[in-house]
Design a protein that fits this description.
Number of strands: 8
Largest sheet: 6 strands, mixed
Structural class: alpha/beta
CATH superfamily of the largest domain: Hypothetical PUA domain-like, domain 1
Strand content: 25-35%
Distance between the termini: 21 Å
Number of helices: 3
Radius of gyration: 17 Å
Strand order of the largest sheet: 1-4-5-6-3-2
Helix content: 25-40%
Order of helices and strands: EEEHEEEEHEH
Length: 145
């Protein structure tokens, strides 16, 4: 995770965010952050900048953030993709968002198995989770459509 992404729900005060999910675990175990550590952070569909660790414990991490940088320019690219197997869809979503693709259309073709369309990986929450993983790697904050 090269960028700690957060949304409006993570705010716990003016210019402060509180994280207590996989992002907290990543900050604690991979970054091994301590109070006063600086991390790269970004608001989903907003600006990016830095976050200073105010406090960290077993339950949550609190960061004081400063957002100053706009997201990188989007590629003038639209991807049309026949729905792949659900297991491959997870990897593809992460890859396209890391590459900077901002518009994706999943299509039905005669070779797409009908059962793929009922996969739980096609829920908005599951798709956004995979896209977010790619954005974190790309240091981008703009969620693809």
């Amino acid at each position: 995770m090269n960028l700690i992404l957060f949304n409006e729900n993570d705010y716990c005060g003016d210019n402060r965010i509180c994280l207590h999910d996989r992002r907290h675990q990543h900050i604690a175990e991979v970054h091994r952050a301590q109070p006063d550590s600086l991390l790269r952070v970004g608001l989903i569909n907003g600006l990016s900048g830095s976050g200073q660790v105010i406090s960290i414990d077993d339950q949550q991490v609190t960061l004081e953030i400063s957002l100053t940088q706009p997201p990188p320019a989007a590629l003038p690219l639209t991807l049309l993709l026949a729905l792949p197997r659900p297991k491959m869809l997870k990897r593809i979503l992460q890859t396209i968002s890391a590459m900077g693709v901002k518009e994706l259309y999943l299509l039905n073709s005669y070779r797409v198995d009908k059962s793929y369309w009922s996969s739980p990986l096609l829920t908005e929450t599951a798709i956004n989770a995979q896209l977010q993983l790619g954005l974190e790697q790309a240091l981008d904050t703009q969620m693809p459509n």
